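2 proteins. here.
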Amino acid sequence: MSVQEYSTSGVSIEEIAKNNNFTTHIDAGFADYMDSVDELAKFRDEFHLPPNPHGPEKTIYLCGNSLGLQPKRLKAVVMGQLDKWSEQGVEGHFLEPTPWVDIDATVSLSMSKLVGAKQSEVVIMNSLTTNLHLMMSAFYRPTASRNKIVIEKKAFPSDYHAVVSQIQLHGFDPKVSLVEVGPREGEVTLRQEDIEATIAEHGSSIALVLFSGIQYYTGQLFNMARIAEVSHSHGAIFGVDLAHAVGNVPLQLHDWNVDFAVWCSYKYMNCGPGSIGGCYVHERFGNGNAAPQEEPVQTDLPLVPSSQSADHLRFADVEPPQPLRLAGWWGHRYDDRFQMDPRFIPAQGVNGFRLSNPPVLLISCIRASLDVFDEAGIDRLRNKSLLLTRYLELLLRSELGDAVDVFTPVDPTQRGAQLSVSFKCCKPVPGSSEPPAVNIDAVLAGLNKAGVMCDARRPDVIRIAPAPLYNSFRDVFDVVLALKSVLGSL
């Protein structure tokens, strides 16, 4: 059987080992066997693996949740655009190959498939936090009675900063208008019922629910479809930060009825440090008028109509008002954009939210990456990822035991590729001013000497993220043995 067949059949790692005459899965030979039946193993050769400064072999790279590896085909694609610029100058905007004037359209179909949306609902533009502000400027329309934003506690700081500043920009107090859903005492991840209870508790006072698709620290994958449903039942907009979800897990933004989403492209998408972000807006909002209003705008009406009781409102049953958007010339419809008319007529769909012309070199990086995803397929990548991460979890628990706490959810439907691991030897002693027994930096340094690259969240956590495009089962086996050796030497 292949890795894909093993994954879809639901057979456990232990059973796979037993059925193939391995006495245990804690065996380099078993890891090599799994790599030998992996149809996606060939994609590892599509990426530049960093050299190991301490040995002849390549680095075991497990930082795809922070910065993905460079696709080998990327340089040729980018150089092609540099050559086009040198040969065509300004005429490159309209001349083949790949006219720059609509170069972002060349990646929108592949991108829409990756996030589960219609092509008209997806655009590549700006950076994640910039897009988040643009989306909130359109969708966070607070009123005296409906002004709260619900987010997960310990959201990525940039999201938190953006939300707080938007609340303040509209004249409200974050101490009142910001609602954080946190874990229960003694727990690290969130319970779905607590998310729903918080939304229900604040009900008609919520203007926006904004969650991560996957929580950056814990690796928890949230039930976006259900949160959208609950948010809408109380008349609230639902938006998602997909930084750690896009390219990691299959998404169905349109079918889940998500209102808007934003993401970066430099993590699991492998598009390069600081590369351009993406944005999704559900088609029901895609044709709003961003032109100045001639009539005074009513300021005590929520974006989502709530003439019905909030407890009975079903978002899909009403026609939501179109959001007022910040406008720029590249959001003007294509047909007469270059006539330079001061009147703004938005392009159809999410394209009407664009502000400026697309950065050609960054779009080229997206193109090179998405070509790999198109060939591999996100569903097949997810199938492999489920087994990779399960194998990592089994090895961590069996080889390191009580020395570590894997606090990412055990349920595979509630996590992506990443496992977050807390080291008991690195934990601060409660009530003591004394430093922990082992500094997490010492663990990282030991791993680095062993040729392993992963990242830390201080004071005591390492995030390990085997990316199915370029990580192998042998990578997973070797990193756990390296970690065992490092901890034993400290």
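next one coming up
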Amino acid sequence: KQWYQRRVLAMANGARQQGRYVSNTVRNPMLPMTELIMNQEPLSSNILNTANPQEQKQMLGEKLYPIIQAAQPELAGKITGMLLEMENSEILHMLEDCTSLNSKVIEAVAVLQAHQQNLADQQKIAI
């Protein structure tokens, strides 16, 4: 477990692993996220409060999706949906803090991968 935690931390920081730079996959989604967050127009709680709850989630999703898509194109929709289940204030914080968003994306990918593994294991048992 410690090995895994060190590896995830090193990869998330863009460290060199086994003589190669880690690519922008689940292991290193920071680079595109940082750039996209910095280039986005901020979404404030005042703007959100003028909308109904459904519109608020839509607005937050429209901000989150392109950032997540840059790091995880195949899982962006699922990850965005997972993150939209959080409180709006937490999502706003993640949109301002790429480290926080990065850790939530890594966590969401881990949950999705565990779910996929669980499905695969169930299929093996069924056969």
